[in-house]
Write a structure and sequence with these properties.
heterodimer; A: alpha+beta; six-stranded mixed beta barrel; B: alpha+beta; 11 helices; 18% strand
Amino acid sequence: MFAYYLDMALLSLRRSKGLTTLMITAVALGIGACMTTLTVVHVLSGDPLPGRSDRVFRATVDPEEIAGYVPGSDPLDQVSWIDGMNLLHARQADRQALMSGGNVAVQPPDASGAEFYTPARYTTADLFGMFGLHFVYGGPWSQADDDGRARLVVITRSLNQKLFGGVDSTGRALQVAGADLRVQGVVDDWAPKPHFHDLDAGSFGDAEQVFMPLTTSRDLQAAHSGSTSCWDSSNSNDADLERSSCAWLQYWVELDSPAKRDAYREFLVAYSRQQHDAGRFQRPPNVRLLDVPQWLDYKAVVPGDVKLQAWLASAFLVVCLVNTVGLMLARFLRRSNEVSVRRALGASRGAIMAQLLVEAAIVGLAGGIGGLLLALGGLWLVRMQPDRYAALAHMDLTMLGLTFVLAVASTVLAGWLPAWRACRIAPALQLKSS
Amino acid sequence: MQIRPILAALRRHKAGTILIALQIALTLAIVCNALFIVHDRIDRVNRLTGMDERNVVTVQNRYVGSTTQFVPQIKTDVQAIRSMPGVESAYATNAFPLRRGGWSTSIQRTAEDRKGEGVSSALYFGDEQTLKTLGVRLIAGRNFTPAEVHSFEREEAPAPAQVIVTKAVADKLFPDGNALGKVVYYYKGKPSTIIGIVDKLTVPWIDADFMDNVTIMPLTFNSTYQFFVVRTKPGQQDAVFKSIANTLYGTSRMRVLPDKTGVRTFEMVRSKAYEADRGMAILMTIVSGVLLLITAAGIVGLSSFWVGQRRKQIGVRRALGAKRSDILSYFLTENFLIALGGVVLGVILAVGMSQWMFTHFEMKRLSLTYVAAGVAILLALGQLAVLAPAMKASRVSPVEATRSV
C-alpha cells in the first residue's frame, strides 16, 4: 500500500513542478538556516567535561571591602592567593585545585631549537584527576610536590612529540620559564571546548601545553595571564600577588554527591564568616558554587549574537512552514476531483490522508536534503568568520540526523491541515458539481 | 470598491486567507527586527573614534629575550620609525582606539575618594607626538613636552604629574567646565594635573559604557608588549606599511611581529574590530531578502490556485458585463485586505518580538519608523506578488461561464 502511495505522490509531484520546487525550496531554506545556527549553538554549548561536569564546581567567596557593596551582587569569579590557599589546605572537597594561566618560554632540549612561548597552566596536583586528564607516560605530581615547590612539569603529548620525538620523556630535564624542570609526566592532549576552567584566556582559547605546580610558577616568577581584580588599595603587581588583596586564581572542587555539595557550600559560608570575624572580610558571607554547566551559563559562553541568530532562524523556519502549509493546501484542494473519485470508489478517509501525508513527507525529505546542503554551505561560511569559536562549527551525526527528522516531521505536520481539509470534501457534491 | 462581496468570498477560503495573513504577519515581525539589527550594527561600524584615521599604520610588537630594560630599545625603535621616509610622527603605546584590549582605571577628584565614586577612563600611554599621530584636536591647554615623558615599571601605578584627558572625562569630573589645571587622582595619593583637553577620543574597546573617557599619559611602559602608532605623510601609507617591519628588524631581531596583526593600517584595525557586526548585518539582510521572496512566492502560489479555482465565476462576472479592470482590482483588493489583516497582526508580533529581544539580548527597542517601513514594504510586496495571478484572472474570457470543467 505504501509503495502505491509513493507512486501516486511522485506522480502528482511531477505534475506541478513549479509548486513542488517552490515548496521544496522553502523547506530547504528554512531547514538550512535553522540547522546552520543550531549546529553553532550545539557546538558552543558542548560539555567540556563529559561524564563529570555535574561533579566539578567553580567555588568562590566574597572577600571585598564593604565600600561599594551592593547586597545581592555576585562575588568575584576568582579568589586571592590567601583565600585560595586556605580553601585548598582545608581539603573539605573530594578534590580541589587552585590554578592560573600563563605563557611560558620553552627551550627545546637540543640546543639548536629556538625558544618559543606556549600556553601554560599553573596548578595544584588535583587538577589531573578532577578534570580527568589521561597520562600517556609518568603521572601527576603529589601534594608534597606542591608544598615543596618541586621543579617539575607535566607536558602534553603533542609538546612531547615536538620536544622529545614522542618517546617516554619522564625524568628528562626541560628548560621552562628560564629554569631546569624535570618532566613528571606526559598527558594526552587536553583541549576542552569551551575553555571552561579559565574563560579569561578566551572561551574557545588555546589549550595549555605545559602544567607546573602553582607554587613553582611563583618561585620562577612566571607571569600569569588573565584578569586580576584588586580591592582596598592593593595593586596588581606580579611580585606581590601572594600578599595583595587581589583575586587572580581559579578555584575548582570536585564533589561527588548533592549532600557533599550542600556541605561544601556550608563550609564556604562558615569560612567567610570566620574571615569576617577575623577582620579580613568586611561583607556578609556571599559564596557561589556552580557546576560546569551552570558556570558556562553564568558566564554566557554562547555569544548573544549566536543565540539571537538561532532564534531568528527558527522563526524563519516557521515562516517557511506556514508558506508550505499554504502551498500544500492549494495543491491538495486542486486535486479535489481525484480525491472524490477515489473516495467514491471506496477509499477510506484514512487512506486519502495517508497518501497525502506521504506526499508531504517526500517534500520534507527533498527539503531536508536541500537543507542539509545549505547547512553545510552555511557552516562553511561560519568557519570563514574570524571568531575564535568559528573553526569549531562542524556538523556531527546528531545534527545530521536532526536535520532529516526536523525536515520530515515539520513538513508532515505542515501537511496535516491541508490533507485533513482535502479528505473532508463530500465526494458526491464534488463529483456532481464538476 | 465592492468590499463586502470580497469579504464574503474570503470567508469561504478561511484556511488560505489565514495562512497568507499569518505569513505576512510573521515576515513583517522578523523583517522589521532584522533590519533594525542591521541598522544598529551599521551605526556601530560607523562610530567615530575621534582620530583622523587616514594615513595611520599600527605595529604590534613583542620583544623577546631577557626581561631587563626594554625602554632603551623602545626609544631606539621610535627614533628609527620617525626617521623613516614618509613618516610624519610616531610613538609607542599600550593601546589605541579599536585595539580591543587595554587598561582602564577610575579617576578621583580627591585622594580619599572611595571606590565606586570615580570616573572610569581608559589609559593610553604616549609622548609629545601622540596627539599629532592620532590626529585628535586639543581644545584647551597644551601638549606634553619631551621632558615630561617618563618610563615606568610594571610594579608602579601609572600616575604621571601631567595628563591630557578627553572632554568627556573633563565634563564628568568638573561639570562647571574648569577642568584645565585641576589635580585629579588615578591612584590614591598620586596627584596628576590636567594640562590639556582633547575634543574626542574613544576607548580601545568596542563595547564599554564609557566610550569617550580616555586619559593620555606621558609614559613609556617597560613591558615586552608595545604598540607603535605611526602617521605617514599623505600618499606614503603603503610605502611605510611595506617597509616598517624591516626597519624594526634592522634595529634589533629580538622581537616578534605576529603574521596577521603585526603591521596593520588603521583601516585594517577598524575592519577587524567590527568584523562580527558587519557579518551580522550581512546575515540579517540576506535573511530579510529571502523571507520577502518566500512570502511573495507563497502569495503567488495561493493566488494562482484561487484564480484557477474561480475561473468559472470570473467568466460569469465577465459575461454579466464586468470589465477586465474590475476583475484585476477585485484580486488586488482581496490581497490588500488579507495583507492589511496580516500587517495589523504583524505589528503586534514585531513589537512583542522586539520587547523579547530587549529583555533577552539587551537590544534597543524597535523604532516605529522600521515598523512603518515594514508595513509599507509588505503591502507593496503583496500587491506586486498578486499582480501576475490577477492579470491572468482578468484575461479569463466570458465564454468560460458556459463551460463545465
